[in-house]
User: Which sequence fits this backbone?
């Protein structure tokens, strides 16, 4: 379960805690730099941040999952190609513009990656691109190429906080989680995302860095498992991004038990996923929907998502009125339309441990309904 006991009295206290989580694993550096440009689409001045995550030595140990949206951004197209690369040595990220369905979008992403690779002495396919922001706008490639050297010069191996801040768009605050592993290795991860969030395969932009020596094949088996029970189990607005990316890179500096690594990665992903939900656009309430006893895990997930994505359930929760009729409506709609074979005679619904529906009828407490 994610860590839910973190309460901060002010932004300064939160920043102080983030700083304690931000120490980079061995073998990584991060740097960020501002980039000013004139947006081609409206002719107005704009700013973005370019962030580079690099390894001291390129690694063959990496994994990634990407959005299943049928209109993926150019970085997703290129990232899928580069899953077959021998090594990855860097990730180059920009916010403000997502580079989705634009003329020459893949070519633009290749140019940014090639410049990063040349500066770091890497093969072109050893750089993963990521972009997030406005859909439909073109990258200001020339301005980005001018700002890139500053991001590279700014790289340091102490803290991931500049990267966590640099990838933000509508996020209210940076998101960092870490896990320390037996033997001295660690996992340190950052995420951005506040809107357009109900993932399939991956979510938002998430970067998981570790110095644990876990081979590529294991990373590619473990990562989807961690995503399935964390990022793929959340929703804010039921919309899936065109740019969702989760990337996991290991510098392989320290030995680590695979079972311990698997548990820690799942915990880090769960904590980050909850951070993303709590930071969602317009979010004032967070609910957890647990479904048990369903015929399959897929049906259980469908029912849970039907409840948390139902607009009328959302408005009830937002109004501090847990209208139980709206919950049974959402469950019945999902089962009736998509899983009519599932019997409902044993359906039970509880809210905060109070039984409100069983044996085909509501069991309402007048005191709670008042």
Assistant:
């Amino acid at each position: 379960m994610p860590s839910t006991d973190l309460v901060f009295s002010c932004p300064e206290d939160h920043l102080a805690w983030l700083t304690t989580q931000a120490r980079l694993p061995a073998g990584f550096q991060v740097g960020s730099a501002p980039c000013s440009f004139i947006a081609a689409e409206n002719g107005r001045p704009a700013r973005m941040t370019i962030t580079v995550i690099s390894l001291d030595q390129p690694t063959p140990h990496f994994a990634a999952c990407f959005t299943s949206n049928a209109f993926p951004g150019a970085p997703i197209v290129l990232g899928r190609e580069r899953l077959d690369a021998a090594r990855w040595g860097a990730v180059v990220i920009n916010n403000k513009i997502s580079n989705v369905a634009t003329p020459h979008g893949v070519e633009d992403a290749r140019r940014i990656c090639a410049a990063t690779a040349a500066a770091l002495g890497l093969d072109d396919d050893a750089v993963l691109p990521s972009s997030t922001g406005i859909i439909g706008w073109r990258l200001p490639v020339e301005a980005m190429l001018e700002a890139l050297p500053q991001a590279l010069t700014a790289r340091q191996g102490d803290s991931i906080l500049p990267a966590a801040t640099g990838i933000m768009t509508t996020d209210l605050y940076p998101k960092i989680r870490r896990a320390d592993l037996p033997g001295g290795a660690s996992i340190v991860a950052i995420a951005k995302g506040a809107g357009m969030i109900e993932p399939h395969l991956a979510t938002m932009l998430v970067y998981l860095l570790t110095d644990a020596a876990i081979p590529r094949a294991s990373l590619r088996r473990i990562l989807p498992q961690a995503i399935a029970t964390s990022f793929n189990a959340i929703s804010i607005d039921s919309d899936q991004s065109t740019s969702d990316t989760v990337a996991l890179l290991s510098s392989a500096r320290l030995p680590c038990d695979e079972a311990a690594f698997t548990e820690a990665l799942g915990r880090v992903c769960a904590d980050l996923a909850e951070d993303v939900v709590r930071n969602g656009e317009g979010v004032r309430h967070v609910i957890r929907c647990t479904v048990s006893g369903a015929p399959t895990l897929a049906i259980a997930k469908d029912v849970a998502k039907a409840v948390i994505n139902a607009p009328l359930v959302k408005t009830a929760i937002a109004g501090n009125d847990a209208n139980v009729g709206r919950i049974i409506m959402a469950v019945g709609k999902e089962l009736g339309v998509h899983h009519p074979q599932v019997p409902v005679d044993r359906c039970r619904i509880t809210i905060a441990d109070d039984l409100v529906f069983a044996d085909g009828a509501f069991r309402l407490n007048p005191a709670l309904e008042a």
